Amino acid sequence: MNQVATPKFGVGAPVRRKEDAAFISGKGHYTDDLKVEGAAHAVVLRSSLAFAKFTLGGLDDARAMDGVQLLLTAADIEGMNSIPCKAVLRQLDGTKHWVPHREVLCFDTARFVGDALAFVVADTVEQARAAMEMIEVDYEDVDPAIGTEAALEDGAPLVWPEHGSNEAFNVGMGNKEAMEEAFQNAHYTTKIKVVNNRLVSNAVEPRACIGEFDGDSGRYTLTTGTQGGHAMRDLIAKNILNVDPKDIRVVTPDVGGGFGTKMFTYLEYPLCLIAAKRLGRPVKWLQERTEHFMSDAHGRDNVSTAELALDENGKMIGLKVHVLANMGAYLHEFGPGIPQVGITMTSGLYDIPATWVEATGVYTNTVPVDAFRGAGRPEALYLMERLADKAAHEMGMDPAEFRRKSFIPDDALPYTTALGRMYDTGSFGAHLTKALDEIHYSTFAEREAESKAKGLYRGIGLSTYVEACAFAGGEEAKLELNKNGSVTLLIGTQSNGQGHATAYGQVIAEYLGLQLDQVEMVQGDTDRVATGGGTGGSRSIPIGLPSVKAASETLVRKIKEIASEKLEVGTADLTLEDGQVRVVGTDQQISLADVAGSQPDTLSAAEKVMQDECTYPNGTHVCEVEIDPETGKTDVVNYVIVDDFGVTVNPMLLAGQVHGGAGQAISQALCENTVYDETGQLLSASFMDYHVARADDLPSFDFSTSNVPSTTNAMGIKGAGEAGSIGAAPAVMNAVQYALRKNAGVEHIDMPATPVAVWSAIQDAQS
């Protein structure tokens, strides 16, 4: 039997991550690893109350303490005290919503536990903390608004009294009249209400930053872990420091996870720059884990209702959705845009002709909410897939066959949904069938009986999902041929652990005939990399790699043109192999180093491939759980994922992304819960109280693909970084719901399905 050899490099090759050797041997260089000579150290004084007027006392005494170099309050940074919201929406009434002023340091009112009141800089972090503790905060407590639904009730305290309401915005889309007509004509309707619990991203590396100012050049340098420094540079320059962006350099070393949270500009960044300029020395700030819980943007936190209209055959004909999205105390950088993007995906993979969706933002006295892995799409698909399972149960239909009835058929693609999304390619029934076969869906009853014999409830659940990602745009890639024959890539995406150097490098190595270690990647330096869109929305490989490929082709052409003159042959007779430009069929060659050395300037190529539309990855997750009714503990015992990612660039990197996303969603479904009490105190502000799934909480995933190349992407790639986080939570919760309904009569359970929540639901249903 003839076998096709696996390619060493190029698209489709299972290349091991070149980054890992440094990371697993402790040789990574993160922000806190950088020791800057003469650096002072900063801490932030944060509000201990959720809503309060305050005054600060003891400032002179604090400033006089040993080692203290600077103490900043709102009064000390007038004119530089505003963090903008970049997502202002057009509402249903045609107006743009009101945006509250968010101060870098609160002037006289704190609006959540963790709001910043003062910034203290000293020679050592211990001295800075001691001075911070000397500051006297006199609070005038105000009743806070806590709880997404409660904040909209009559008489609820107002986070922004001048606004007159805790409703932040109201947006919607679809055809309301058609939806109402569909419900009037429906054979059957059903309704569900679900909570999408608030999450704290908890990357391995908490945030840190170093601010520097060069008095001679008048330039600032900010070193910090980001998901892209260019947008951060521009926001700090234009909206806070009031300087030209060219006067700020943002440097990003290795980053220990981002998940959306490290995309944003936080107050510590401009404050370190301001302090560095005033002191004439570098200023470093390092976040503690509890600070991450109480100050960095949270994710999710929706309360959503959805109604589904069905015809006599169980086909979906109408959908009505209303999402209440908790925004926290302020409108964070992209916060309002998250539910707006989410509702565009609410109808999922289904052909639902009459759809109406709304989203209402809600102010509460809690940490602001913004993008977290998936950013609105996990919330939307969770709602739809929980609703689909409920409808299937009430119609007495198998959940898989119920979904098939409403799938957009293959021959209808490209298909524009009632919410304006244009799905270009896919075969939704194909990945559902493959997933059901892989999990042995037809023999589930046998496994269910085995679990029952052990006194356990066994459940099976599935979800079919689609997401929009790799949004329209482009990312310039520049390649430089170095004098030693190696190649350097400069690109404005930002790896947070995804393996960009490997994915980009394997394509460059293929075209240039190099080894992977002969390709260097430069990211995370706004001085060296001219432009950059950063990393988010699963954009880096689908958007960045076509430009890398195009730049590789251009550089190869330039190299061949130079080599053809040296070797006196046509470019068509040349090939690049092992660092050499060779004449095909002869022993004539010239090295890439000699080609580079023959040029007075660095030989380079820059390309930017533009994309006009999103990509739409989709797939099926099927999950089996076992529940111990005596303890409420849920174990994921079988898990199958079949995804359509268009074209697979690197199957090893792809599997890692899918496993990571699914693991985070399973953690949300079964473990994670951000809890505020009625006074606005964050009760889950450490790993002692906030359960993130560990290795033994997660299953061994059975992952495969059923790919249909994208037509909107130049290389056929569909983004993959967020897909696991979208498909997993509804699959797990549908499995939990199946087991609890069938064995204990529990009709509804929300995330997180913790042991206490599951045990209590069983007891309540049986009482």
Automatic annotation (TrEMBL):
UniProt xrefs under Gene3D superfamilies: Aldehyde oxidase/xanthine dehydrogenase, a/b hammerhead (3.90.1170.50), Aldehyde oxidase/xanthine dehydrogenase, molybdopterin binding domain (3.30.365.10)
Key words of the record: Molybdenum, Oxidoreductase
Domain Aldehyde oxidase/xanthine dehydrogenase a/b hammerhead: 25-143
Highest rank taxon of the organism: Bacteria
PANTHER family for the chain: ALDEHYDE OXIDASE 1-RELATED, XANTHINE DEHYDROGENASE
Protein's recorded name: Xanthine dehydrogenase family protein molybdopterin-binding subunit
